[in-house]
Amino acid sequence: AGCEKEPSSYMWIYILLGNMLRGIGETPITPLGISYLDDFAKEEDVPVYVACLHTIAMLGPMLGFLLGSLCARLYVDIGFVDLGSITITPQDSRWVGAWWLGFLIGGVTSFLAAIPFCFLPKSLKKPEEATNDKTSYGLLENTPTHISFLSDFYTSLKKVLSNRMYFTFLCCSLLQFNSFIGFITYKPKYMEQQYGQSTSKSNFLIGLTSLPPVGLGIFLGGLIMKKYKMNIIVATKFAFIMSFLAYVSSLLHFFVGCENYMVAGMTVSYE
């Protein structure tokens, strides 16, 4: 009865704002980068370049998991307490790793990586030998700056979502990312609970085994599209077949696991 409620921390607001700013900074890279590649590269080379772009994007989470594994080995108050006085180890359930260190390292790295973008020209000049049937360059060059941007955006969005091919691809992408994010989010915790691994080792194994194959698959997909010069219909069939095989293979996860722990009163009787 004499206990007082501890004041809640507002640090989550800083993390929320930091992630919001990071998202704002990262958003233009993919759409504008792909548009730039589509306009200035040869048509048969675009799939390879886009595949390289996405493959590199997959290396980021892999390195992030490895960095998280390293930070999880360090005590949360590193630099503020005497590490010799800590009696628990990373294998202890009470251990809290230096989760905040990854944000600092990632923030500094993102800042340094953003510096070269400041030296890009204000407007992009399209080569004379380029074809005139591509319209994404016009979107980059003639971006409206007045209030009509909202109406133009609504018109463009309506036109894009009314495209059945794109809308189907969008729904498939949402399903893929939902399953992939759930897989990445809960698999480390599953490994900790079922296989008795530390948080550090779980993150290390996830980063080393899950993400590199995805990046390799994206790169190989770009090479295959370049070699066989697939049009949109053939590419759609190819994507469907590969996705179907991936989903069938994922079903094998249902047959992998460990037996439940013997806990008196829950999995076994008290006798």
TrEMBL record:
Source superkingdom: Eukaryota
Subcellular localization: Cell membrane; Membrane
Pfam families (alphabetical): OATP
Membrane topology: Multi-pass membrane protein
UniProt record, GO biological process: monoatomic ion transport; sodium-independent organic anion transport
Primary localization: membrane
GO CC entries: basolateral plasma membrane
Transmembrane segments: 46-67, 97-120, 165-184, 204-225, 232-256
MF terms (GO), sorted A to Z: bile acid transmembrane transporter activity; sodium-independent organic anion transmembrane transporter activity
UniProt keyword list: Disulfide bond, Ion transport, Membrane, Transmembrane, Transmembrane helix, Transport
Family (UniProt): Belongs to the organo anion transporter (TC 2.A.60) family.
Protein name: Solute carrier organic anion transporter family member
Organism: Columbina picui
